[in-house]
Specification:
Elements: E1 2-6, H1 13-23, E2 30-38, E3 43-48, H2 51-64, E4 70-72, H3 78-88, E5 95-97, H4 112-122, E6 128-129, H5 133-140, H6 147-159, E7 165-167, E8 178-181, E9 186-189, H7 202-215, H8 220-236
Helix pairs in contact: 1-7, 2-3, 3-4, 5-6, 7-8
Amino acid sequence: MTIAGSDPSGGAGIQADLKTFHQFGVYGEAVITLLTVQNTVGVEAVECLSPELILRQARAVLADIPPAAVKTGALGNGRLVEAVAELAGELEVPLVVDPVMISKHGAPLMDAEARHVLVSRLIPKAFLLTPNMPEAAALAGFDVPDVPAMRRAAATLHDLGARAVLVKGGHLAGEAVDVLFDGRSYLEFPAPRIDTPHTHGTGCTYSAAIAAMLARRSPLQEAVAAAKAFLTAAIRTNPGLGHGSGPVNHFALVRLG
């Protein structure tokens, strides 16, 4: 199940999540947190749903078709994060928290209050936290420009209560190296940098792929490795849609080991 915002252009949010779930062979459910008006060029508007409606959506699903894993995406404001944190306390399955703060086009998708609630209420309930480098810097409170800093940020965020932290290295100058810390050891997942503007929805797709693998009962390291391989292929084979930062290829080949 994904708890996230809607992207009408189909490249990010619940649309990307559901496509990814399908590609990984798992049944997808979606709880919508906010609506956006956006395309590959920019975001024109963001409108959050009420916390009550979000909880009603989620509990309707949990009562009938309980998921094997859950992921979160854009949560918008503090009241929504509070609601999702409340729901997370009722879950008995892995929760992947993608702390979406800013869209690919720079539009804010989480306010300051929401960030505070995320740190205090939701991160401690996360099985896996998946920030990119700017998000890791914002949450950890220091600059994250390189792999050593990514390691430090992962440890800092683990101390906030997340069981494991994956700091994504798409903003690195060279190879896209992701750093996974589970409280005991660090693992690095490198991939060649692909020169393309079409990376809309990469964070959503990556976290959805990990959640799908966890739903398939894969160990965390295996889940991240499979998701990373899928995302790299999806970026490399992107369909080149739109006039801006287009979507990745959600038909990319999935390798399950």
